[in-house]
Amino acid sequence: MKNYNSITIIHEDDSLPLFDDNTSLLSPLPNDKQVNYNPHPQDHLAPPFSASQSGDDSNRPSSLLVGTFNLIATIIGGGVLSLPIAFQKCGIFTTTLFMLTSAYMTYMSLITLCYSSRRCGGSSYGEVVRSAFGERMEEGVSWLLFIFLLFVIAAYMVLIRDIWTPLVGLAMGEEVNGDRMLMGIIVVLLPFLFQRSLHALRWNCYIGFGSILVLCVALCRGGFQRYYYQEHYGDDGQHGDAGDEATTAATTDIEFFKVPTVQDVLFSFPIVMLAFLSHFNILSIQNTLNRPTRQRMKNVTGMAIIASCLLMYLFGLGGYMLYGSKTQGNVLLNIPIAKIPDEDMEEYWLFLLGRIGCGTTLMLAMPLLALPCRDALLEVVDVLFHRSHHRSDSSDASNDTLFWKMLHKLNRNESIDDAAITTEDEVDEIVMDEDITTPERKSPLMSMSPGRNSILIRKDAIQRDWVFRNSMMHYGSTLMIVVCCYIGATKVEGVAEIWSLIGSSLAFLIAFILPFGCFIVIENGVEGSDRHDGWIKAAAAMLVLSIVGAVVCTWNRIASM
Fold first, then answer.
1. What was the pLDDT predicted at 430?
2. Distance CA 181, CA 18 (A)
3. Is 15 helix (H, G, I), strand (E, B) or coil?
4. What is the pLDDT of residue 401?
5. CA nearest 126: which of 280, 286, 289, 278?
6. What pLDDT is recorded for position 172?
7. In this structure, which long-range contacts are made by residues 413-418, counting pairs with CB atoms below 8 Å and at least 24 apart in sequence?
8. Closest to 158 in 3D by CA, of 333, 324, 322
9. Which of 437, 430, 408 is nearest to 421 (CA)?
10. Which of 244, 299, 448, 536 could be 432's S-S partner, Cβ–Cβ 3.0 to 4.6 Å?
11. CA distances (Å), 340 to each of 234, 331, 524, in order?
């Protein structure tokens, strides 16, 4: 799609500070709460910048707290259950380095993805990739995200089934069919799965965070208590009772400074990295944040990464301290569902509540994954719609194909404007070729160079396009995703294979390679003092490391099959 429509450039007041040379990627701006204007009017934001501080803007309703918890809830999910095995494989010191490295690289890649979005006007992951590498790459990345998230949702369904089935069986005193149990949970979750924005799911985020915190407290309490008694009294904390002999033996081999093998490193690092993966929701958070200055997005991202890293680190460390060398790939497999003889009643109930909390967290997190999965699929359809509905090519709505006519007819919210909508009503794309250097194509607020593929001009985020608003597409795609993931979840026994496959290949590509690659291409197209040459070099270094890590980890995974 190449639209060379005339664009009116609105120049902001030159007295506003466009860029502070003393500001780095990590340093905060002072008195951010008092900034009610956009300090960087050269950014292309969709919806436009809103100075509302009360959250009453319908286009940008999310506060700093809501945006932060949206990102935390996206990060903390099923991957946290495998973190104790990373500590067991590599020891506490090495895994701590893995956690810090993954947290920093995730922060950098999230920030560069947001900056790339502001430079190019893209309101989705796919549109950022489109700006850097073209329309075909937008389609390809959207399919990649869709397939990746299908795997993740299926893995969540497996975990939800495995957690809740024994709990319900314990409460009812009889065996429960796991697949039927899962189907019932999905039916209960349907109202959440049909939600259109992360802001509408904010209570899921609050409750989910509090729920997983219960299991984290249980693991840390049990782990540190047993390690303390083992070191000082030679038992497992049961004050002379026999206790759990397997756990007692496990706590004697806690390794703080273990020298891991290459195989252990290649096994553990993808698990840690996958636990931080949240890139498919970061732009949706930016699109709904009120007063979305660059600094506020840094604050959202930084606070979410710090809080998530701290919680996940304590979760993994507590699980390892409790079970040591006996730690399994899913730490819940170490926790007995029924009370064992001589077990502390307080500890038993804490772990039971922790298991319930973990199950609740995964249930409430599933809609946070279904939303970007659906958006990725609909973005592919949106690209096809825009490709065939240019104003110059479709002056008569009767020329629509049968597919588009059916979607118009079945859309219960169809308006008169929707019936004749065209590509130019939703988005303009300015493609910069080497032979286009006319003054009207260049502006201090819209600097374009041959190094950049295109800039997208939008009034609203992509989620407000007709394809996304179409009720038939919305409900139909959601049900299709749920059914496909449910069928997949009923065909596998566990999640180990799913995590290992996507963690060693797709996660590297989505989390690091594409964000850093897009940032380098797009940022190189920026002219003047607003270009961050130092960040480009840092992104290039991390891009190389990411590619090497992806190749090595994927090769190791294939070789171990």
1. 82
2. 55
3. coil
4. 75
5. 280
6. 83
7. 413/469, 413/470, 413/471, 418/466, 418/469
8. 333
9. 408
10. 448
11. 21, 17, 62
Query: Of 546, 61, 95, nearest to 317 (Cα)?
Result: 95
Q: Cα–Cα distance between 445 and 442 in angstroms, integer?
A: 8
pLDDT along the chain (561 residues), means of 10: 36 36 44 62 80 62 90 88 90 94 94 92 92 90 93 89 88 84 94 89 85 88 81 56 47 77 86 89 91 91 95 93 84 80 76 87 91 94 85 56 79 77 82 48 39 75 89 93 92 62 75 93 80 88 91 79 65
Residue 174 CA, chain-centre distance (Å), reads 38
3-state percent helix, strand, coil for the chain, nearest multiple of 5:
65, 0, 30
Q: Is 329 helix (H, G, I), strand (E, B) or coil?
A: coil
Sign of the dihedral defined by the CA atoms of residues 98, 204, 298, 151, in that order: positive
CA 544, 550, 552, 553 dihedral sign is positive
pTM score, whole prediction: 0.84
CA distances from 423 to 129, 380, 385, 387 (A): 19, 14, 8, 8
Q: How far apart are CA 15 and CA 13, in angstroms?
A: 5
Is the backbone of residue 332 left (phi > 0), alpha (psi -120 to 50) or beta?
alpha
**Helices 345-388 and 279-288, axial angle in degrees (round to 10):** 70
Which pLDDT belongs to residue 559?
75
* pLDDT at residue 72, as a whole number: 93
The residue type at 453: N
411 token code pair: 């859309």
State the DSSP code for 62.
B
List of residues 6+ apart from 201 with CB closer than 8 A? 70, 192, 195, 367, 368, 371
pLDDT for res 324: 84
Q: What token pair was written down for 42? A: 């050269």
| Side chain identity, residue 474 | H
**Residue 437 DSSP code:** -
Give the pLDDT of residue 402: 77
Q: Would you mind telling me the total number of residues written for the chain in this entry?
A: 561
Residue labelled with tokens 């979305």: 292
Alpha helices in 445-470 (DSSP H): 466-469
Cα dihedral sign, 266-272-275-279: negative
Q: Which contacts qualify for 149-152: CB closer than 8 Å, 24 or more apart?
A: 149/280, 149/369, 149/370, 149/372, 149/373, 149/376, 150/373, 150/481, 150/484, 150/485, 150/488, 151/488, 151/498, 151/501, 151/502, 151/506, 152/78, 152/369, 152/498, 152/502
CA neighbours closer than 13 Å in the CB half-sphere of residue 93? 6
In 234-261, which residue ranges form alpha helices assigned H by DSSP?
Answer: 245-250
Closest CA relative to residue 283, chosen from 300, 308, 302: 300
pLDDT digits (tens, 9 = 90+) for 445-470: 344 444 456 888 888 888 888 899 88
**Cβ burial, residue 30 (10 Å; 0-12/13-18/19+):** exposed
